[in-house]
Amino acid sequence: MPRKPPAVFPQEQRLLSELGERLRLARKRRKLSNAVVAQRAGVSRTTVYKVEAGNPGATLGAYVRVLAVLGLEGDLHLLAADDRIEHKLQDQALEPSSNTRRRKTNPSSAQNREGFV
Question: What highest taxon heads this organism's lineage (predicted)?
Answer without folding.
Answer: Bacteria
